Amino acid sequence: MPLLDNEIVWKPALLNGSLPTQNGGCLNRYQTIxxxxxxxxxxxxxxxxxTEGLSSRKKAFLCIVPQANTDLLDSHLFIDQLTPAxxxxxxxxxxxxxxxxxxxxxxxxxxxTLYANTLVNATTIVVVPENIxxxxxxxxxxxxMTVRIANRTYNGATGNEEYKTIETVTYGSSLITITLTTxxxxxxxxxxxxxxxxxxxxxxxxxxxxxxxxxxxxxxTGLFTTYHNVTPFSSWQITMQSATNYTLxxxxxxxxxxxxxxxxxxxNANETIGTQVTTLFSVPASIFGGTFVAGxxxxxxxxxxxxxxxxxxxxxxxxxxxxxxxxxISLQGESE
Length: 336
Description:
The protein is mainly β.
């Protein structure tokens, strides 16, 4: 079944503190970030901060939550507009658990506009970035990156759009010159054409991996069954209590959860909140083989159907008002 618009949501990180060690972390599975709502990600900015300048980072997760466990294929994530105020925003792909002090701040993605009309078959484009000095440091356009060139919105019916690979890039005093590996298929006007560096993920889905097994003659040849709308990020361990019975322990949302199961039957790892029971993932009997003894262990991880994203907002010194300011980020993909 195809993914519906309401099955693609942004969710916050668990931690929202002011210190780097208390900002970010794992996915908050119980909340969503509303669209077009003031301060839904970044907080208010004072006049003093606008005058002195400010850089801040917030983490969010782009999630798919389909009831039918549908994968999102060929995902393209990009900023599709400039911010209307003096600030600018880039994003980076994070890790599922990292806090701000742990994040690797490389591989930024940003946006700009065309400096001049560009003809069909052109292999060079000149980009006006949101902030050239900031972009020289952050380098959101770099060799090998995919860029989206478009004079239409992410779902627009008019205008053109194409994705190209950067062959060379030069940061000048006010402009960025980009050479493409292949020519443009369309001509693009100066007005309303945006150039966006783009993160691409072939398949967005929940999944499980096995990292280690300690057993002389027991085997684990399959994986857990995961569910796109509920499976969390977790580190798990199966510990055999006998030849057939085991305890499953998973570290989820900074807490330890435990279930008891048997290699002869399906185990649903259920979570109960109030009166609602949710199966986070399942352990099929078919994954077990050979002969286990008490003390044998199997270890692994589960991953949600989510992309962890760090947003970095820079407000240069002496910035003007941020009234009605926003950052627009788009997702394109396919589902079956």
